[in-house]
Amino acid sequence: MEPLLIPWWPDAAKVLGGLSRSKTHQLVRSGELPSVLVGGRRLVITAGLPRYVERLQMEQNGNAA
Question: Residue 15 in contact with residue 1, Cβ under 8 Å?
Fold first, then answer.
């Protein structure tokens, strides 16, 4: 998957099942969702979305990374 940039809100939240604005912001601030700042706009790097979901699955299955 070629990395693309999408706005952290609302587009990244939609991809992650409709997470709240505050949760999405928390994930970006913690670095769990990789992002870049372009001008005044925060963009999420789409390649980070599957990695985040995989981490969640591993944690929920008792295989914390």
Answer: no
**Whole-angstrom distance, CA of residue 17 vs CA of residue 2:** 21
Contacts with 4 (C-beta within 8 Å, 6 or more apart), sequence order: 45, 46
Contact between residue 51 and residue 7 where contact means Cβ atoms under 8 Å apart? no
Structure tokens at 24: 């999405």
Q: Write down the pTM of the prediction.
A: 0.77
**Which residue type is seen at 18?**
G
| Cα–Cα distance for residue pair 13/33, rounded to 1 Å | 11
Q: Is the pLDDT confidence value at 23 over 60?
A: yes
Distance from C-alpha of 45 to C-alpha of 33, rounded to nearest angstrom: 8
Instruction: Give the torsion through C-alpha atoms of 15, 19, 22, 26, to 10 deg.
Output: -60
